[in-house]
Every structure is written in structure tokens, then in C-alpha cells.
Amino acid sequence: MDDKPEDHPGGGDVAEIVPAEVRTRLEHGTHSVLVDTRALEEVRRRFDDEQASALGRYLASAQSHNTLRAYRTDWCAFTAWCLAEGRRSLPADPVDVAVYLAAAADTVGRDDPARWALSPSTLERKAAAIAAVHGAHGLASPTRADVVRMTLRGIRRQRRARPNRKRPVLLHTLEALLAERPAPGHPTGAARRRDALLLLAGFAGALRRSELAALTFDDIAVDTDATTGEPLLVVGLAATKTDQEARHAQQVALPRGRRSTTCPVCAFAEWADAVRAHRDGGAPGLRAFLEADPQAGADHLAAAPPAHRCHTYTGTDLADGTARPLFPPIDRHGRLAPRTISGRAVADLVKRYAERAGLDPRAFSGHSLRSGFATQAALGGAADREIMRQGRWTNPRTVHGYIRTANPLEDNAVTRLGL
């Protein structure tokens, strides 16, 4: 699944909730919850700095950035609890860990006391973080004890509930979101172009929000559909949730759309033009480019859809090996940042456009684009293997869930009852 690591019960930055004494201990301790820096110091005594640094670098890369960030947050929360309760966090007693998880399970939401603050999966991740820290220090994990495993099992049994799944963005929903983009011209035209590509790529490519956020221009290649001769985009994915070591060189294809307003190739060309203007002329160059947009002086809501421009599109020189972000943040003045947006920003963008379209933003998330692809494809009659190929799913049961959502009567014997 795609979801971001959940925050600790209090939310906010770790520095705001962890007592100063705990922060001081952490700062003087290991800098990674998975790498024992004291052991690395022993390595440095035996090998030269370059060899030791190489070892530390690869050990630190054993887990994804999101996993490490979540584990650090979880470890800080557990350490703070141990300090408040007079318990020892390292090595931790299994009973203390079980009590901590039980107490965390009973925590209710700050804004909604009727809802639990932490899900069973979040509590299991907290246990995994505690196990990871112990393993990094060569200690036996307290989470392997029966008291911890039984506590987690009891939490799962008591919390049996239907998952709170977000709504998929279907094709008509996607068109509604696209219709709510800001006006062309300066300063909103840059966000208008970027967001069109983000929404279309996320939907047609069945991309996770983390995958969208990580894309660069170097990852996009313009190719040709061998059957139709039409242009298409080939998106190369680096590390993904299910391929964190990037062993399989996964790719997704984004074909030309029937209309220019829903064509990923046209959207890419439009956005690449704006980014090139910014690269060559900075903020003033981008402003001049956007102000020259033919639709800038017209009522873009009433204007006829523009014609396709992808027929002769051959690519952009922005794919120059510099890993230029495909989706950078854009401020209210229309200025592009040199970094990439975050996965959270992708989810916020989907929610924001849903709200503008008169939909409940709480019903949508960054995953709505990916689930929308699978559901819409199932509605269109796509086979399991076709959906799994584009979405890189390996478990058919996941796809079957989307198909049941799209058409609960598909291959269902109830249609043969003669009612």
C-alpha cells in the first residue's frame, strides 16, 4: 500500500513532544535507529576512513527513508514513555513493551475522542521500530516474547473493523478535478500545468504518491506506440514500495489521450515548456512565457479545448542527467523551487482539488489516483493481468478487490438466479 508513516499520538515535530533530557540522550547516542555507530567506530579503528564510511553509507541505505523516519519517531516516543514511567528502553523488558503498546492502543484522537488515535498497523510498526533498535545494538528483540505478540494479537482482534478506504478517482472525477485548476497566465499558470500532469500521470500510471513525488525529468522518455504510431511517455521508476532496491527497473507507459485535456503526453509537453522557460530565464523568463499563453487573456472556462500538440512531440532537453524534479513546489508568486514535492503534498493536492470540485476532501487521498486507475480499468473490461501489469501488482487478490468495487455483479452467480 501507499500510505505514509503515521505520526505519533501527539503529532507535530519530534522536538516539540520529546522531553529535553530524552533529546539530549538521543543526540549523544546513535544517529540511526538501524545502524550502531559505536560498532562503526570499532570498524574505523581497523580500517581506513574511506572503507568505514562506505560501510556506514550502505548500512544506512538498508531501509527506505520513510521507514527510517517512522522508526526514529517511534523510538523517540517509546523512549519518552520509558523516561516518564521510570522504565529502561534499551534493553527493554518485554512486559514494558507490551504495556506501552497497550497504552498506545487506548489513546484516542485529540480532535475526535470517539476514534482511536493509532491503528493496529501503526502499533505493529512501533513494535518493529523497537525491534530494529535492539537489533542494531546486537540485543535480543523484546517483541519476540509471547507477552508482546499476544498483546498485538489482542489489539487486532478487538479492533476488527472494515478498512476506511478512500474513494477512487474515476475518469469523471478526474475531469472534475482538472476543471478546478487555477487560471492560465501568471502567476497561477505554472501550477495549472504542473497539476494537470501530476493528476494525469498518477491516474494513468497507477502511481503511488511517493513514486510521483520522486520523479525527475530524467525518468521520462518519449517513445512511439508501435501499433498506432502515436507518441507515448515511458516513465522509469527507481526504488518503489515493492522494489526498494530497484532490481526490476520497473516502467509504466502513459499513452496519448483521446482529448488534449486528458492527454498525459500533451500535459507533459505543456509543463516541460514552462520549466524550460524557468531554466533559461529564471522567474522573469517564466513570467513572460506564462503571460504569452494564448488562453491567458481569455475565459479559460468557456474557451474551446486546445488541439493536441503531442503528434510531433519528440521530447525535451530537460532530461540532461541533472535529476531536475518533475514536480517541484510552486509558491503563490509562481516561482519554482529546486527540490521535489513530498508525498504528503501529492495527497494534499488531490484533497484540495476534490474540495474545489464540491467533493468531500476527507474521502480522497493520494492513493485515490492509483485505486482509481484499477477501478476504472475494471469498469472498462480490462483483464486482471492487464491491470496488474500497469499497476505493478503481484497479488491478484488486490486487483480483485478493485474489480468487486467497480462491478459487484461481475462473474457473480446471483445474476443466474432468475429473480
Present the secondary structure layout:
Layout: H1 14-17, H2 20-27, H3 37-46, H4 49-60, H5 65-85, H6 94-105, H7 120-136, H8 146-158, H9 171-178, H10 189-204, H11 209-214, E1 220-224, E2 231-236, E3 251-255, H12 264-291, H13 343-356, H14 367-379, H15 384-391, H16 396-406
Antiparallel strand pairs: 1-2, 2-3
Helix pairs in contact: 3-4, 5-7, 6-7, 6-8, 9-13, 10-12, 10-14, 14-15, 14-16
Give a verbal description of the structure.
The chain has 419 residues and is mainly alpha-helical. Helices cover 48% and strands 4% of the residues. The protein has a three-stranded antiparallel β-sheet, with no helix packed on it. Strand 1 and strand 2 form a beta hairpin. Helix 6 (94-105) packs antiparallel against helix 7 (120-136), helix 6 packs parallel to helix 8 (146-158) and helix 10 (189-204) packs antiparallel against helix 12 (264-291). The longest helix is centred in the middle third of the chain and has 28 residues, at 264-291. The chain is globular and about 70 Å long. The relative contact order is 0.10.
